[in-house]
Amino acid sequence: LTPLLPHIDHRNRGMRTRLGCLSHKSDSYNDFTAILPDKPNRALKRLSTEEATRWADSFDILLSHKYGLAAFRAFLKTEFSEENLEFWLACEDFKKTRSAAKLASKAQRIFEEFIDVQAPREVNIDFQTRELTRRNMQEPSLSCFDQAQGKVHSLMEKDSYPRFLRSKIYTDLLSQTQRRLS
């Protein structure tokens, strides 16, 4: 259906999210292990219960841990909202850009992919933030996405992060690390 009506896909983001509840996509520990950066068994042997428990201390601790990031990404995929994390990560990578020549092209790619109205992976930001970011694009700098990135970070921290901490992915992961100790 999507190839025949690509314009409908972007307009019906809310409907897609609501229909996601009916999907057979699971929210399980196994989904998380499938996307671990290393081989799952080796990675989980290195993950301590203490580390996984610390992810609940703060959202930034979760984002700074590679397995925490992988688990959070797996969770967001079950909610069909991984574009928020992908945008935040793209901004983090963008801030490391040292080449002036690459700055404008990277900024344009991020804007077209995440910020522009009806972008393929459009993030949920308010009109003022979108317009400020559009103006910042006239002279891209390392800080041109700061406000949009901050809004998306705040949205994930207040909305997705608490649900992640209650998710089967996270609770199963904690159980798995604790079982290894017994």
UniProtKB/TrEMBL annotation:
Pfam families for this protein: RGS
UniProt main location, coarse: membrane
Gene Ontology cellular-component annotations: dendrite; nucleus; perikaryon; plasma membrane
Compartments where found: Cell membrane; Cell projection, Dendrite; Nucleus; Perikaryon
Keywords (A to Z) from UniProt: Cell membrane, Cell projection, Membrane, Nucleus, Signal transduction inhibitor
GO BP terms in the entry: negative regulation of signal transduction
Domain RGS: 58-174
Domain of life, per lineage: Eukaryota
Membrane topology: Peripheral membrane protein
Keyword Transmembrane set for record: no
Bilayer-spanning residue ranges: none
Protein name as it appears in the record: Regulator of G-protein signaling 8
